[in-house]
């Protein structure tokens, strides 16, 4: 503690004698301190954090503590400083303003000491020096105790707020009964509009505890998009508010800046209560990308991929049911035919474009397509067969690890 180290026995006695005289002026000292604080500091003049009565009580308590300490009637007790620091932190008062108000109070005390030592029987330069040292050492002790408590309390409040915010974000994504009666509270705490326009983002984590989209909330805020996020072992998910539906492109471009894995984005939707459904669609979009790949898909960009990804087991059954004759072929034959069929779909059924992509003569492609049709027993001109083949190829692409397994049992047999 600085206060005790700066006072020697002789100087302590001088300071105590002066403090006794100053204490007689305590009512006027309180009035002067309150008046100066309100005159110089708008936050106190406008009663933003404390009322005039609360300010006056705080000033009186702190000045009484100062005078008791300077008189030496008790050991310096910084509990009042800690109490003030905690109270103001809970009220949200800014720390610099708080410290400034305290310095104003101690400056008023010091002015009274100057008046006493500069005139009459108390005229004493050595006494003034001793009193000045004591007062400013006390300021250091008080400011340290107040600041430490203020920061500890602020951290405590922020942790509690963050815990509540995380719980509300969890409830928002869970949907259903979790949000009944709480949606207004969720919207208020997360600063999101109940009837606003949103997208949900689901980004695959590179490893447990690591964000695939670091600082994404701050980066979105810089572009005037509010959002709320949570991190799970496998995903970082967020709901992002948009000023208008066209803003989705801005958000997607931002997400693409530093993508490190798979990212799924829901369709644009309206109403905060629809967030859990949108999260499902964002997950579906993410699942439509190959595991281990890097990229981003918005659900409405590929409805077929979304349909396949939303029902993995049924989609795998479809792929095996439709493509089993080719999957059972020897490795080279199987791969050539599957690659040809996939290229044919990607080239919109054009034999010419497929041959160019695969560096083959068009007749070679025609021969392969004829064999594919024969092996599968399906026509490449029948819209129903083409739809099934396209869905089966998409499922095989999304769930490649199942292509070597025996065909799932047909539930209709």
TrEMBL record:
Location of the RsbT co-antagonist protein RsbRD N-terminal domain: 27-165
Location of the CdaR GGDEF-like domain: 178-287
Residue ranges of domain PucR C-terminal helix-turn-helix in the record: 337-395
InterPro entries in alphabetical order: CdaR-like_regulators, CdaR_GGDEF, PucR_C-HTH_dom, PucR_C-HTH_sf, RsbRD_N_dom
Gene3D superfamilies named in the record: PucR C-terminal helix-turn-helix domain (1.10.10.2840)
UniProt record similarity statement: Belongs to the CdaR family.
PANTHER family: CARBOHYDRATE DIACID REGULATOR, DNA-BINDING TRANSCRIPTIONAL ACTIVATOR ADER
Protein name: PucR family transcriptional regulator
């Amino acid at each position: 503690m600085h206060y005790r180290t700066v006072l020697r026995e002789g100087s302590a006695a001088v300071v105590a004698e002066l403090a006794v005289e100053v204490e007689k002026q305590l009512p006027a000292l309180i009035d002067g301190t309150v008046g100066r604080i309100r005159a110089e500091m708008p936050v106190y003049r406008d009663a933003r954090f404390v009322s005039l009565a609360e300010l006056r009580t705080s000033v009186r308590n702190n000045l009484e503590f100062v005078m008791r300490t300077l008189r030496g009637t008790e050991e310096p007790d910084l509990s009042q400083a800690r109490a003030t620091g905690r109270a103001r932190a809970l009220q949200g008062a800014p720390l610099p303003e708080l410290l400034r108000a305290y310095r104003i109070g101690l400056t008023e005390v010091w002015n009274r000491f100057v008046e006493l030592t500069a005139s009459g029987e108390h005229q004493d330069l050595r006494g003034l020096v001793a009193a000045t040292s004591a007062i400013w050492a006390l300021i250091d002790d008080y400011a340290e105790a107040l600041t430490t408590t203020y920061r500890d309390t602020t951290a405590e409040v922020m942790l509690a707020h963050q815990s509540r915010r995380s719980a509300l974000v969890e409830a928002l994504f869970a949907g259903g009964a979790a949000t009944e009666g709480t949606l207004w509270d969720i919207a208020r705490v997360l600063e999101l509009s109940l009837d606003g326009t949103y997208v949900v983002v689901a980004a695959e984590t590179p490893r447990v505890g690591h964000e695939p989209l670091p600082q994404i909330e701050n980066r979105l805020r810089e572009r005037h998009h509010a959002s709320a996020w949570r991190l799970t072992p496998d995903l970082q998910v967020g709901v992002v508010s948009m000023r208008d539906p066209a803003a989705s492109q801005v958000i997607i471009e931002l997400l693409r800046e530093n993508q490190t894995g798979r990212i799924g984005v829901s369709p644009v939707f309206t109403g905060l209560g629809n967030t859990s459904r949108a999260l499902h669609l964002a997950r579906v979009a993410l699942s439509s990308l190959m595991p281990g790949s890097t990229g981003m898909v918005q659900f409405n960009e590929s409805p077929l991929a979304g349909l396949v990804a939303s029902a993995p087991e049924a989609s795998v059954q479809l792929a095996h049911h439709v493509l089993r004759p080719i999957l059972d072929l020897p490795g080279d034959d199987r791969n050539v035919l599957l690659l040809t069929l996939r290229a044919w779909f990607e080239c919109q059924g054009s034999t010419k474009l497929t041959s160019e992509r695969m560096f083959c003569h068009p007749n070679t492609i025609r021969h392969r397509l004829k064999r594919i049709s024969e092996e599968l027993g399906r026509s490449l001109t029948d819209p129903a067969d083409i739809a099934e083949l396209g869905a089966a190829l998409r499922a095989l692409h999304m769930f490649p690890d199942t292509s070597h397994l025996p065909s799932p049992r047909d539930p209709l047999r």
